[in-house]
């Protein structure tokens, strides 16, 4: 969620239980300014919060020139003091999958037991946090179709001519896409004309996701705001106010994927 829409955006997603205290919001708004200056980010976004037993991890995302690839994550316990999350490597993802289970403790130095597992190095909770944030963002980050463009030089930028989806378009899951590298091109990812515009049609549509029914789309706030929730990663909530630039997503949850969803649908 872009820091520009932070306060209004948090109100739009509050129906999902995505709430912060007034003190936390004030601290976050101050941190947005400081982090953007100190790390020379083009934009700073509130990514969300992963709940722990002892402490919660507040997460922000800083973006550089390329909106899709030039990304850094930081975490905090108090929305004031921030620590850079390591990048999630393939090795780290594999090691975390083998050993890190259950709820987060809230202690980044906590080391997970690796009984019966051959590991190249110990897996602490900071690494698990980095992997979880990476996976959630890869699998369920959401933007309206057309909100970003890919230049001939392969840079992903904000589409300055995007003025929001119409109300009728915002009612269709086809018009929302994953903000992550394309994994597969399916029928619904192609416009009805059958012709792809490489500048706009470079992201996967939510409607292509398996299993079907992985998303819930509703209009809330007296029908003024489109709200989409992930059932795969409960806690991920996206909002868009049709005919405006306001859109964003936030994750507030325990960082545990709902692997039972195919059996629940």
Label this structure with key terms.
12 strands, alpha+beta, 21% helix, two-stranded antiparallel ribbon, eight-stranded mixed β-sheet, 265 residues, 22% strand, 2 domains
Give a short summary of the structure.
By secondary structure, the chain is an alpha+beta fold. The protein contains five helices and twelve strands. It has helices at 6-12, 22-39, 90-99, 125-140, 261-264; strands spanning 43-50, 57-63, 71-76, 83-84, 142-144, 148-150, 156-158, 176-178, 215-220, 225-230, 236-240, 247-253.
Coarse structural class: alpha+beta
The low-confidence runs, each spanning 5 or more residues with pLDDT under 50, are none
* Beta-strand proportion: 15-25%
Outline the biggest β-sheet: 8 strands, mixed
**Tally of separate domains:** 2
Q: Based on DSSP secondary structure assignment, what is the total number of beta strands?
A: 12
Multimeric state: single chain
> What's the N-to-C terminus distance?
29 Å
Write down the secondary-structure element order.
HHEEEEHHEEEEEEEEH
Indicate the percent of residues in helices: 10-25%
